[in-house]
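ok posting inputs for the iron/sulfur cluster job
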Amino acid sequence: MSKEAQPGSATYSGSPLPVEGLLGRIKPQIAQILSRSLEGRELTVEEGIQLFECRGRELQVLALVADEVRRQLVGDVITYVQVRNINFTNVCYTGCRFCEFGQRASHQDAYTLEIEEVVQRAREAWDFGATEICMQGGLNPQLSGYHYRDLLVAVKKELPDIHIHSFSPFEVQYCARRTGLSVEEVLIMFKEAGLGSIPGTAAEILDTEIRQRLTKNKLTAEDWATIIKTAHRVGLPSTSTIMYGHIDAPRHWSNHIALLREIQKETGGFTEFVPLGFIHDNTRLYASGEARPGSTGAEDITMHAVSRLMLAGYINNIQVSWVKMGPKFAQQCLMSGANDFGGTLMDETISRMAGASYGEYMPPDEFRRLIWDLDRVPAQRATNYKILRNFDRAEDQAYLAQKPATGTTTGWARGGGKEITAPATGAGRILPVIN
Ligand code: SF4
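and the output
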């Protein structure tokens, strides 16, 4: 493993930027906050709100400071993970107003994958180089409460070494209700069946008033925090997320991030923070006129930059969502405090159903091409951020120069680059392969 690509080693490809010199040229109250951040002090909720409201020159300096703090904390490596998302059912009656994925069982697009089909998809992903699968789905009342456990057991029997990162806190709570077990008992059962970590999804905005307007039937912010802390306590790490750009405002974002920071102080169980911009196009929330049409570019930059500064020293991995923002704007956020490019995904359904148009699969070569383009250092990671593969700059750039850029695709080819049919993401639905 080359020294250059060690995350956390804080090795730089260049000398630190003299950002202090720029602080004298922006509003003094913003300069003071950024200065405190550069000194390693913890930012308050109020300071976070002020940073979220930065625009113009203040926004540019905020991004530079966040990038500098990123360099000091984790160096120049940008990681990515080879993962397949398996959305095993879209049947759901929760009725979240920001979601177009969940469907009633009678809907023509409703589907539920047989366990064998899930295992086959996991096997395909493993054979294609994936180290992780992420299983999430709707809350389908036709499935037994033990279906989650059965999925884990079946996948692990076929692929004992794959990492299973699955089931949101809402799915964990649903399983507890259906089985009569406690949340802790469910999580222990999942762990014993092979679960490695859980996604910190279903967080949306951890604010009671906002959650009531997004969805009346979902778990409360308190429940989310309790389930996440319980998962961490039983040895299941998790990611942490925020969904922003709808009916929310900077004070909700700052409070949300501060709450995650408090949980992390208590448990140390978060592996990363993933800002997820609201995809509005096909949602009832947007059609009702209540929500904004997703986040703006300035909000995307501030979200990644401010979360880097507020979480510094607690959650040091900030992930961009290329499927929400597109790979090009994801590059911008990787220059504004973020250090992880996320996953290959292979079959991303949830964002696509809400109207996202950035594809469902990004090949590893494309991650590396975009990372080298930023003059940063790519590395393939495991779910827990252990580095699995480094790349020699000259050798890899020469290799990539021989290949046409692929961008993201709506399907993925298997079999050593031979074009074959991509796996279906829904019942009877075959996506075209563009590769
Ligand atoms: S976000 Fe999840 S729980 Fe809510 S409707 Fe969609 S699938 Fe169901």
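notes: Residues 56-74 form the longest helix (19 residues). The mean pLDDT is 89.
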